[in-house]
Amino acid sequence: MGRTALYRDPVPFCPPRAEVQLDFDVLALAMPDGRHRRHELDGSAATLADGFVVAQGARTRIDARPERRFVRMLILERDREHHVVITPPDRGAVAPNVVRLPEAPGEAAIVDQPAWDALTEWIMGGGRLAGCSIADLARLAAIATPRFAVLIGEVAAERALELVWAARGPLRGAGGIDAALHPLVTAARQSPRAAQALAAALAYATRATRGKRHA
User: Fold this and answer.
1) Is the confidence at residue 4, as pLDDT, over 60?
2) What distance in Å separates the CA atoms of residue 162 and residue 166, rounded to the nearest whole number?
3) Residue 31 pLDDT > 90
4) Which one, 46, 51, 56, 90, has least CB within 10 Å?
């Protein structure tokens, strides 16, 4: 009978992730080693840049040098604070050694792509809820603190009610609120924080609709 074996099966390169908790003006990062980082966002300078990470244990097929992976970097600087948040290097393409890019610092926080996208959109947009669509708010709610998630939900409810009332009249707003909040409803199925924002949105919409009917 034949036998199958793997010769030097490589260990998968999958560095642990940090958890993002975003408040209105503070970014908190729970690092995989148990440490917590806190960065005040007011007055921070934010920069987006391309970079690379050396994949520990992985080797290129051509010259056996350590493999490099492309990452996107969010660089936050305020006073003497300096934090770097990067996309998952295990999901990035292999970066040729001839490409000149800065290497991400070893202490950079690695977060999953959806969280990185929501975080960078918020910070590079100046941290304002006023310009966010319901879809934007749904993405943001997934990385929000509980307190911020409630505020996001209430803002999403205001957006949804504006859409519903404009289409159907002020006395018939409650019926279409679920459809208007669809991005947040979808996000709530996968994120407890988005679910908290959705609960706040529905409660706010109910109060606002009752107020309209009794006005």
Assistant:
1) no
2) 6
3) yes
4) 56
Tell me the whole-structure pTM to 2 decimals. Answer: 0.83
Distance CA 37, CA 135 (A): 28
CA dist., res. 89 & res. 53, Å (int):
6
pLDDT for position 83: 92
Q: How far apart are CA 157 and CA 172, in angstroms?
A: 15
Element (H, E) at 204: helix 192-214
Q: Residue 140: its pLDDT value, please? A: 97
Look at the block and give the residue holding tokens 């100046």: 126
Unique residue bearing structure tokens 């056996």: 64
Distance CA 127, CA 70 (A): 27
**What's the rounded Cα separation, in Å, for the pair 84 and 76?**
6
Side-chain-facing half-sphere of 199: CA atoms under 13 Å: 12
Domain boundaries, the chain: 19-124, 134-214
Alpha carbon distance 215, 207 (integer Å): 12
- Helix, strand, coil shares of the chain, percent, nearest 5, are 40, 25, 35
